């Protein structure tokens, strides 16, 4: 994490980015500034990086239970194009798959079958 933080700060110094911290501090600016007065982050964090897939799934389900925001992800990267991964528990996975197969979506896809 520390190496990634150094690299990110070197390549994008304009970003408000912090290293490892407890999730409650990421969302509570007042407490964060008391404990870490030199923190560069202002307001609430808008991106959390989780150490494992299990930790990310636990956090996602907690946020879904207490919040009313829109969750996006997971996103598969490293392929020719980014792809959103739909899990069996996705509320409208069937509709998403059908729309993907029918043709161009909002991203201007090719219209070829991309869902298996």
The tally of strands reads 2
Q: Which structural class matches the secondary elements? A: mainly alpha
Rg over alpha carbons: 18 Å
On the 0-100 scale, what is the average pLDDT? Answer: 73
Write up this protein:
With 116 residues, the protein is mainly α. It folds into 2 domains: 1-68, no CATH class; 72-116, no CATH class. Helices cover 40% and strands 3% of the residues. The protein contains 5 helices and 2 strands; from the N terminus they run ααααββα. Strands 1-2 form a two-stranded antiparallel ribbon. A hairpin with a 6-residue loop joins strand 1 (75-76) and strand 2. The protein is globular and about 40 Å long. Mean pLDDT is 73; it is low at 93-105 and 111-116.
Quickly list its features.
single chain; 116 residues; mainly alpha; 2 domains; two-stranded antiparallel ribbon; 5 helices; 40% helix; globular; disordered C terminus
A few lines on this structure:
The chain has 116 residues and is mainly alpha-helical. Helix content is 40%, strand content 3%. The protein has a two-stranded antiparallel sheet.
Write the layout of secondary structure elements.
Layout: H1 2-11, H2 23-27, H3 29-35, H4 53-66, E1 75-76, E2 83-84, H5 93-102
Antiparallel strand pairs: 1-2
